[in-house]
Write a sequence for this structure.
């Protein structure tokens, strides 16, 4: 099984270069009279049809850019979307939201089908300010600049220029000296781009703060909770931070001692704090990765491997590292095609294997949604739900890691994946706390930001790690996390959903077939429901209270200790 890099994997059903034509279609929607409940429902269908065409074209152009940030023509198309189409879209979305919310037939809509849409659109009307449109455009420009800088980042390794993901993958190397070398080279690369990153983040914080002030909020954090329509409060987040610090970090410290013993080291340094019990990368060529993951998915459920093989055949994956490719990995929907696309920029490593499995959880979720309900709409896409199925897929495939790691290596691979589950309970959560601080203290300096990042890191993931002499390196490490730049406050959802995924693993250990069916049922559930209702359909609870955190932490620690 080989991978081909397809250039056309999405549909362009609308010419976004024809700005007048796009605007005319929006204006037509504005002018359609709505004289009955049936008119309103037909109008919603027409609106959805236009938005799907625009969304697929813009998504395709964005992915094209992430795949090749060096191509001037691709960049030009992407920037046209961001600088011309995006402001137009925001302007007319606001007008369409207002038309919808002011309809005299709104109360006649089926609450089960349209209730979530109504709440989200009413919230958008409340938040919209025309003066924020240029601020959103500038925000996207800064995000694009970040991608260009990171996509062009290379490191010299043994006399040869290597893509940045290659050097990151060396943090998994079994030789401690190689890991330490990679760690310092990565931080040296960060130091090189740090002035640019500080300038980007400084401007983003001020932009976002102004967006919040314009909308009548005291800070961007409070604005975000409303814009995301979160089904929990700021205080719930702070309680979650404390619960994890109280119950998960002590367990993490105990496990760190286990890993330190297995590594045979006296001190646990930052370059010891990643997957390195494994002697070799799980694959050398992308084709081997594809073959192995297809096998793992098929052993779990035939539908999973069917979708994966379909994506390979239709050029819906771009894996592996290369210069000019944006960092990170993600899965995105192509709503007009009814497909999903998985992007990843990683060199062969344990993490790159798990990242692909993670994104396939998203992809399966997307395909099940499309087959059951048609294209998902923005208002239905809640990260707390989406991440349940990506983390869940990782844990459903935990018992099949022997596809890449034989014999004793298999046990180590399982330990590493469960260790990753542990880190997903506190890593993203510490990033969430970092952003709470940043946006409620918007006039902080770059130096204060680094110091706060170091302080929070030591409270959570680096609690058992000796960081002596590396305070500055740790403090500036936030530059490597694209979420802070491109997806603000998209962090705590990972930790919340991991609690649900661990419940899924617990169910799988009792009855694998039932747990997989529950996974598929939840992934294809009606997303107009609350998060709690969707979790319930998946056979788990939407619960991040102290008892839930304590119980799942104990379960996870027990499972890791029991691997023999």
């Amino acid at each position: 099984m080989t991978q081909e890099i397809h250039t056309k994997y999405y549909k362009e059903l609308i010419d976004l270069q024809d700005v007048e034509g796009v605007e005319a279609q929006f204006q037509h929607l504005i002018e359609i009279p709505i004289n009955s409940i049936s008119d309103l429902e037909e109008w919603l269908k027409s609106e959805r049809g236009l938005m799907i065409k625009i969304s697929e074209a813009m998504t395709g152009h964005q992915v094209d850019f992430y795949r090749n940030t060096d191509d001037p023509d691709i960049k030009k198309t992407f920037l046209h979307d961001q600088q011309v189409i995006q402001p137009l879209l925001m302007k007319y979305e606001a007008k369409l939201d207002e038309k919808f919310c002011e309809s005299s037939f709104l109360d006649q809509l089926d609450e089960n089908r349209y209730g979530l849409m109504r709440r989200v659109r009413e919230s958008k009307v409340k938040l919209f300010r025309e003066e924020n449109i240029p601020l959103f455009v500038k925000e996207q420009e800064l995000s694009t600049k970040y991608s260009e800088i990171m996509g062009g980042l290379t490191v010299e390794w043994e006399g040869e220029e290597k893509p940045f993901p290659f050097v990151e993958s060396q943090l998994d190397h079994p030789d401690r000296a190689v890991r330490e070398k990679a760690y310092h080279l990565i931080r040296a690369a960060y130091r090189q781009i740090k002035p640019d990153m500080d300038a980007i983040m400084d401007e983003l914080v001020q932009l976002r703060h102004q967006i919040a002030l314009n909308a009548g909020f005291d800070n961007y954090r409070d604005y975000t909770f409303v814009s995301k329509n979160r089904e929990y409060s700021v205080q719930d987040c702070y309680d979650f931070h404390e619960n994890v610090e109280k119950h998960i970090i002590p367990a993490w410290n105990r496990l760190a001692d286990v890993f330190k013993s297995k590594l045979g080291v006296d001190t646990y340094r930052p370059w010891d704090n990643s997957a390195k019990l494994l002697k070799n990368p799980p694959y050398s060529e992308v084709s081997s990765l594809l073959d192995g993951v297809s096998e793992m998915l098929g052993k779990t459920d035939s539908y999973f491997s069917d979708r994966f093989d379909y994506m390979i055949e239709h050029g819906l994956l771009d894996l592996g590292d290369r210069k000019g490719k944006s960092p990170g990995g993600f899965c995105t929907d192509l709503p007009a095609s009814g497909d999903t696309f998985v992007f990843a920029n990683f060199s062969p490593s344990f993490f790159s294997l798990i990242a692909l499995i993670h994104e396939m959880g998203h992809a399966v979720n997307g395909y099940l949604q499309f087959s059951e309900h048609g294209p998902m709409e923005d208002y239905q896409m809640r990260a707390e739900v989406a991440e349940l199925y990506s983390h869940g897929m990782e844990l459903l495939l935990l018992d099949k890691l022997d596809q890449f790691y034989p014999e004793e290596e298999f046990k180590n691979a399982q330990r590493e994946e469960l260790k990753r589950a542990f880190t997903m309970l506190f890593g993203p959560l510490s990033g969430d706390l970092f952003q709470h601080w940043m946006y409620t203290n918007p006039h902080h300096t770059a130096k204060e930001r680094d110091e706060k990042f170091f302080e929070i890191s030591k409270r959570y993931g680096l609690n058992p790690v000796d960081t002596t002499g590396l305070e500055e390196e740790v403090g500036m490490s936030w530059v490597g996390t694209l979420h802070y730049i491109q997806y603000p406050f998209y962090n705590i959802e990972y930790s919340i959903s991991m609690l649900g995924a661990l419940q899924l693993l617990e169910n799988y250990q009792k009855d694998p077939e039932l747990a997989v069916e529950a996974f598929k049922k939840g992934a294809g559930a009606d997303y107009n429901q609350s998060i709690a209702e969707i979790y319930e359909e998946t056979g788990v609870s939407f619960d991040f209270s102290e008892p839930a955190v304590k119980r799942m932490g104990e379960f996870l620690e027990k499972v890791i200790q029991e691997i023999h």
About this structure: DSSP finds 22 helices and five strands in the chain. The longest strand covers residues 328-334. The chain has a mean pLDDT of 93.
